[in-house]
Structure formats: structure tokens, C-alpha cells
Structure prediction request, 296 residues.
Amino acid sequence: MHSPEGRFSQTDPLILRTILLSYQIRIEKHLNIDFESMLKEIDSFPDFKNKKIKLPYRQELRNLNQLRNMVQHHAMEPESSTIDDWRVFTRRFLTKTFKIYFQLSFDEVSSVQFIEDKNIKSLILYAYQLQADGDFKQSIIHAKLAFMYASYSIRDFMPDDGFNNDFFVISDIRQSILEQIPYKISDKIEDTIRTIYSKIDDSKLYSIMISSGVSFVDYKNFERETPHIDFTLDGGFVVQSGPNYEPNDETTSWVLNFVEQTVIKWQLSGLDLKLNKSLQHSCSKILNKIKHQSEQ
Prediction:
């Protein structure tokens, strides 16, 4: 079961943010403003005022934003008919806005194009291509890789654990305790410590996801519908899935939409999703492999 929050697109605040950036009304580091302020600053921009350009459907935008806040922060469950009505409205708003501010047809644009990190964007676009080709398993794998890269970059905002990890703990007790007991028992103790710290890391990641605005229900569903992936020291990755793991088109569409909307949500909240050098190396290795395969 998917949460109602997952069915409310973040596209309209993303487009407002893009207008602010494209016309240099605000620079990126000053974009952490509320929804109403974005509306006001866009309509107050001198070039738009001189041309008598105003955002379409302002009141409806306010109503949609209020409803989205109720869903996200107060666990309100809207009726299906309401969700359908707002989905239709969102398309009308986007169609007009793209024509007015970007001279583009809405049908020519995907919200993926507004993902700022080029590596994450490339992985998601490739995942959509794999879905179109009918390779649903590989599509989900590459969508999850994009999600993992984005979520790892969020970890950089969290406090550093310093020496509080399994390596330093084991090293400390090895010198004082483990060397004095039989190696079979000491190995078992080391494995137990590593397992405990692994569970702690999983809990921390889960807490980061929820605190960043990701729905509890959607994140659990995402983990259930995707295989486990581990990164290797050389920048590659290993996929672990059951023998009967064969996702269909509907599941693939949900996973892709979840990843895309989550990355956009993180951007809108002011998180900088740029990959560090290690993640860039890993992601570049995957993208180079994709490029090599496409050239064959």
C-alpha cells in the first residue's frame, strides 16, 4: 500500500524554484523560502510586471500546497477523487507555465530534467530507458543506485561518528581482551560487534530517510520492491535478490517515480546532493560502463 503523500507531486514548487533560478531572481543558496514567498517574488519581478506576466492559477496553487502540507505533516488521507482533480490541475498549471516562462511544450519536458546532479540524473534517465525496453529488473537496479548515491550524499549533513565505529571498537578490545581468549570465541565476538554496528548504521539511515521527509510507508515499500545492493571497494556494486524476483511494469513505474520525486523533494528542502569524490568515482564507473554498452 502506497501513502497518499507519494501521490502528490512536488512538481509545482520545483517549477517555481526553476523560474527563480532561470531568471536570476534568486541564487541557489538563497532559495530556502516558503511557498507563498516564491509566488510573490516571481510576480513581483520587474521584467514580468512590465510584460504583465503573472503566474496562472495562484489561488489553486495555494490550495494544493495547503493540502500537500496536510498530507505530509498531519497524515490526512484525501479522497481519490480529490487526488485525481489535483493531478488534472497540476498538468494544466505546468502546461501554461512552461509556455509562458520557458516557451516550451509541457509534453517535451520531464521533471527528471530538473534534477541538479548530472550523475544522479543520468542514472534515472537510463533507468527509464531500461523500463521502456522492458528490462524491469535492471531498471529498478539503476533507479536504486541513483537513490543510494543521493541518500549517501545526505549523510554528509549528519554529525561525524569519529572513532565510534566497529573498526576502532574491535581494535581497542582486541588488545585488552580478545587476544587473551581462544580465537574461535574472539572471532565470534568480533562478528557480533560488526553485526551490532551494521544494525546501528541501518537504523541511522532509516532515521535520516524519515527526517528528510520521506514517507514511512513509501520507504518500506521501496525497500521491499527493490533488491539489496552493496558497493564494492573498486567502485562497482553487487546485487542480491531472490531467485523469483521478477518485477513488472507497474512496480517499476512506482519505484522510478518514488526515486525521482524523493530526489526532487530533497533538492526543494535545500539539501545539496552533489556527490563526493568517492561517490563520483563509483557513479562515473557505472555510467562509463553504460556508455560503452550503448556504443557496442
Summary: The longest strand covers residues 228-231. The first helix runs from residue 11 to 22. The two ends are 41 Å apart (CA to CA). Residues 1-8 have pLDDT under 50 and may be disordered.
